[in-house]
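Entry 14. Structure prediction run on the chain below.
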Amino acid sequence: MLAKRYFLVAATIALALAGCSNSPLSSFGQGRGTTAQSKPSARNDSARRLNALQFLTQALRTNRADLMEKAINIMEEPALNGDGLSAYRLGTIYRDGRVIDKDTDMAIAWLNVVPPTSAEGPAASYALACTYFGLATVLSANSPANLIKIRISKADAFWAMHSAAEAGHFLAQVDLAAYYRFGYGTEVDQMAPELWIRQAKSTLERHPSRVLQDFLAEGNTELHREAYGLMWKHYHESTDFDLRHFNVDPIDLVEGRSQCRPAGASNTDSSKP
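Output returned:
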């Protein structure tokens, strides 16, 4: 079953990414989200998502791998047929190692299946960027001489982050400012960080509920909680939470720690960009 799953996903990704043009170094491109199969009916999609969610919830509560496998099996077909939510859930399950073992290759494959124009598109792009960033970090630590793979992973992270930021993802806009500031996967740009911080402020002011949703989806980590401090604490204690009450300054977040972006000179090395 596992070998069949790898083959099926790999074949779909090969079709989906044919003709990518975002970057000569990047596997992240315009072909993302394309599949060779036709879409099932909305009713079937909805039923499968509900069924999968039940198994997924039980798996997380009980830490049972067999229930997670059932959820994965149910989500695979609709994900390959264009259901962005199923593909996004599969990608994050493999990326985070939720109940089952982490699998970066499978995470990247499923996140690339998410249609960019779907509701989950921006979140999938951000998750991809974080995954590529983590891959580059591991390569830099364990295989520092492998400059080509490190450079490609950094470029992949940059292009995925850029896509998410352009789609209005608040955390991606903050992190992209750091990418430009430190020349991570791209050239150093002194003007771009200010522009993206300004855009992040605008996003926070105009869409506070969406920003909160993005934060809860991808910011639920020790490092993100540290960066957001009181904002995170108040969210869990208040029934009328509003991000705008905190005057969150995205530029302060660029200085903080994150699992998805560089911070400081220690992240610049000979493998740039």
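Residues 1-8, 15-31, 36-40, 265-271 have pLDDT under 50 and may be disordered.
Filed with the rest of this week's runs.
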